[in-house]
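Observation: inputs received (chain + dinuclear copper ion).
Thought: call the complex predictor directly.
Action: predict_structure
Action Input:
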Amino acid sequence: MFKKTLTMAMAIGMSLGTGSAAWSSALDDVMEARGLTQKDLLAAAKTYTPSGGRDEYLAFSSGGQSGQLIVYGIPSMRILKYVAVFTPEPWQGYGFDDESKAVLAQGRINGKDINFGDTHHPAISETNAEYDGQYLFINDKNNPRLAVVDLHDFETKQIVVNPHFNNEHGGAFVTPNTDYVIEAAQYPAPFEDEYVPLEQFNDRYRGGVTYWKFNREIGRLDPSQSFTVEMPPYSQDLSDFGKFGSDGWSFTNSFCSERYVGGIEKGRPPYEAGCSQKDTDFLHAVNWKKAVELYKAGKGKSVNGMDVLSMETMVENNALFLVPEPKSPHGVDVSPDGKFMIVSGKLDSHAYVYSFAKMMAAHSAGKYEARDDYGIPIVSLEDALERQVQVGLGPLHTQYDSKDCTVYTSIYVDSQVTKWNYCTGEILDKLSIHYNIGHLMTMEGDSASPDGKYLVALDKLAIDRFNPVGPLHPQNHQLIDISGDKMELLYDMPIPLGEPHYAVAIKADKLKPAIRYKSGWDSRSDKRSPYKTRAGREKTSRTCDGDNCTVEVFGTVIRSHITPETIEAEVGDKVIIHLTNLERAEDETHGFAINGTNVNLSLEPGKTVSATFMADTEGVFPYYCTEFCSALHLEMEGYLLVKPKGYKAVEGEIVDGTTYNKADYDKQYQTNLDTQAIIDSVVGYITSTNFKDFAPVTALVEDAVDQLGFAAAWQKKAEESAAANDFQNATLQAGQWWQYQVKAADIGLRAKTYLEQHGAVVQAK
Ligand code: K7E
Ligand code: CUA
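Observation:
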């Protein structure tokens, strides 16, 4: 025994030895053939993730104009998912099944479907200012909306429309315990939905900041507990919440505090000139906890069904003040300890480090340099500023490192990332990026304890970085190693979906995504679906109310058939189809699409979804499963038959294309017995192990037991038909029995492989 082990170890050692020699010479060849340097290899080694490997972080990137969310792994930069948020997405059935249509319908504006979103800033829910991995919020700039994505299944659950703004930008950002999600307006407009001439811009147009209450228990925003703080008609921009010492305050930038109104067609200089004349704009500091108190005390005024706290009320209660900030700023980023906020002006080469303590000292002492035209007090720049640091041309956003006082600022005009120390003002490093960086992101970089390690540059232009694909270029996300003193560029990832603005990255092990739904689950409302259908309980009904008839199907899908296999309707009928995926096995999704109807469903294991449509054209409409789910996936099919109104059935029966006799039956019967022997041996192996310790296997075993139960039922039918000398049906029934056996065997073999690969042990009897 000992000797045998030794010989095996020697054999392995030897093969490893010769193997690595072969690898190293091949490596030289590959390097030469592809023109790779040692540095390239090092970068590759830092990002390459072998087959089956996992990433340390998951990034959630805005999908820009696609209205979606992009999920990718870091450091591999492999795209894992597009989460449909504001835009219909066929693969996920989003905007095709009734359940998700209801979510999109929440985002209607003035009753109109808005089928895209300009997504900018995702935010992961936080507990004690740390990412908790439960929910994600993302905003739509063009149509002022926020969406809630549940990270338990990576699905969009809710969309809310801001009732006051006609545009927004400074969202989504969360309070340290995700009590509120902030959304700041961008281009001022009247809060009431009415026409107000531009001549009344100063008096009637308004900016603002909305605080959306988040109810974590149900995982939804609660408009009935949410409110807006009115702001002057400056263009409010990015926002952030304070934490620790600055908890209770939020900070929102603005540009165009000139309140300039353009109109080149009337000979006025354009917005860009009028909105960049002054050297400074205003940072808005809001005591949001005070605002909540005022709102709860009824100090707000309802506008379009949601309360607005006026600037006057806020100022009277010392809950709002302004601080000058560098011209046309973009990001405001609060430090992990909550003590500082870094603001950069796009038209100023400096980053300004503000001290919360200093601005509060001036505010508490009532030491203001002036008031703006709306009566809001202004704390002077000198009284609030810690320091200003020359970081480069066109600084935009700043992210924090795990190392003390170390930050990275994106430099748009210079196409660089500047690494600097905000406690000393020292510039530590600069790295060129390709090209024109917008946001940047470090790992958990806007939480209380950034992880450092990697930085992703979200570049606005790719220009020459990739193979040309026509005038519209992909976006370029560049992965940068920030673990050392100097930044090192590792990888370029093209993003061809839209222009991502911001992204957030969370440690992957903080996420606990499900792999299946509880059976019969409506994933959009997160409740058991009233249309859940069990195996054997499928039914179709046709009911009429006068001339209006409705065909309603309660069906199921499971490898490899759809129940029902025929749906009959008459022209003019409303058809409602509810389908439940009976599978429990990981990744056994079925699809469902009907020709000519725009019905297209995705059924992940356990899910129940519905489709409602009018059968307005007579004809024969095949339907089928759109996911290659099993060997007999192509046979997962059926017909929707839409008959002319009042159609009288023709006499006769379906005639099978092929007939079977006793010999056929006996042959199938023997095949089934042989198959059963294989199944028994696999089952024998599985049950001899500690398989119950492996959750994925228990799920597979449950599915296999289901399939074997169905097999037994069809065996019984086949034997009864054979006893009655009906070999046509007996053979077909034995065939269906065999189909269930094959599926059980397939599942069983997958379970067996899993057990073998995951170190299951055979237990003593
Ligand atoms: Cu593009 Cu934050 Cu909307 Cu900056 S934003 S770049
Ligand atoms: Cu189910 Cu293909």
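Thought: report the result.
Final Answer: Residues 2-34 form the longest helix (33 residues). Confidence is low (pLDDT under 50) at residues 1-17.
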